[in-house]
Amino acid sequence: MATDQGKLSNVNALARMSELRGKKIPEVGTTTFRPPFTPISMASLVGHEHGKHFQPTRLSPIHHWHVENGAKITEAGAWMRPWYYAEAGEGLDEAYIREATHVRENVGMVDVSTLGKIAVQGPDAAEFLNRMYVNGWKTLQVGRLRYGVMLREDGFVMDDGATARLGEHDYFMSTTIANAAKVPAFSEHLLQTAWKDLKVHVTTVTDQWAAIAVAGPKSRDLLSNVFKGADLSREALPNNHFTYAKLDGVEVRIHRMPYSGELAYEVYIPSGYARAVWETLHEQSQKYRIKPYGTESMSALRIEKGHVAGPELEGRTTTKDLGLEAFASSKKPFVGLILRKRPVLKDPERPTLVGLEIDGATGTKSGSILFPETGETKGHGDGRVSSTTYSPALGKNIALALLKNGSSRKGETVRVVNFVGDETLTAKVVSHHFFDPKGERQNA
After folding, report:
1. Which of 53, 140, 330, 403 has the fewest Cβ atoms nearer than 10 Å?
2. Total structural domains in the chain?
3. What pLDDT shows up at residue 255?
4. Residue 31's domain spans which residues?
């Protein structure tokens, strides 16, 4: 019945039932109708990609600079984001490969203002975070960051992100773009129902702060030259720490946390000054060869590094599936703790995250089904491809996938079947940490 409440399917079902029973439709009877009471047009059921809707379109504070400088724009949830910056004669593939290569060799910057940002404040802020995330937060010191994984009540992963401790009772949480509204709504629901005793306020500050990720082996030199009042040396600002700096009187916060696998920083700026800071960084393009990059190359970089994102956090995966089980504390309660222990979620044969090195010059498609090297290609197979890209760093097509018994199948060859495109490829199962698995570049 679903979307149309039976107005499209009901008549067909009744006609078939009357045929089987040898009676007319009125004699068979009808189901119970709910609004709308009349059939609806197919046009009202079309997919998302059909012009503008009533939902507002959101633009980052730097959006107009991207458009003015030739960025191709794509939708990312409610936001419009730079997809890639094409140079003469380039299409998507040529542009993102060039951008990703540039980040690995020099330094790039990407607008990440679209991240969800939440202020968690109050005497019980640490306790609140302790309950929301699977990992612990009460030992996090002021001036430090921590990566966190959040579950739904049914035990599946809902979101991940980094949270900074700004003060004794003041934390700054970041979420994925897709869950920027869901996480604060879920938080408020718990605070108003299950955790009414906690003295904590959760406030969305996504629009208050713009953010620029700066990544690449020259990123420290660039930021040290542009921003004043901050020591960004490896000793003073190791990974998972933050500091404050100024640019022309504007105070910014610089987080050192990699997403690309490179030496990388996230610069948080009051939104009204975001374009000015972006332009100041871009002015260093001659000296430090800094260039902007878009979401496509950002995705390629994170796949090379093996970081999970929306295609892996799609509502059906657990911490165990994604190789994040070590984050889950055994010493405290948290949302999803009980139901994550269901036998079906502990099944050793559940698909787990692996990497795939695709044979040949053709990459695979997300959603392709994985099968053993021999045998029939029927049914649901042994898993599925979640994210795929051409890797400039490795010079080959790669993918992240969820494969049955994946941790024990490294080195095995599997078939990658795209039933929609009628295409079958072969791939080698490897670690999902394709690039710099020891983290030497990001810890430089």
Report:
1. 330
2. 3
3. 97
4. 2-45
